[in-house]
Amino acid sequence: MSSDLGINIGIPEDERKAIAEGLSRLLADTYTLYLKTHNFHWNVTGPMFNTLHLMFETQYNELALAVDTIAERIRALGEYAPGSYAQYASLTVIKEAAGVPAAEEMIRELARDQEAVARTARSVFPLAEKANDQPTADLLTQRMLTHEKTAWMLRSMAS
User: Fold this and answer.
1) Which one, of 18, 8, 49, 23, lies nearest residue 121 by Cα?
2) pTM listed for this prediction
3) Long-range CB contacts (within 8 A, 24+) of 73-76
């Protein structure tokens, strides 16, 4: 049975679509960073192994929860969330690692990537603000806070 129940949450359709497109980029960045962080968790070696293995696990677990929150917000706005590697590859700014980098390079790459995701979230914020979309603005604020803090922690480990 199909439903003709439209979406009437106080945000015009064109603004909902624009916000959802921005959130789709954020979802792609977040999922790609999740995969990269998980890869580094599995493959890190060296004297910082235990510290980085545990830190990366904490980070990828946080990212796994974030992708669900972002995707569900896209759906609440009435759009479909991207969910394939091909879609993510076309939307993300996060670059895959070449091979298995040394632990120090993993730290540097993840710090840069965390900052990149914060920039993506920040780029969507004006759309949410203009549309008076407080739930999305709150989500974006939380994502920026998390990514900026994680980037700082990673930068603090780099020598």
Assistant:
1) 23
2) 0.94
3) 73/23, 73/135, 73/136, 73/139, 74/20, 74/23, 74/24, 74/27, 76/9, 76/135
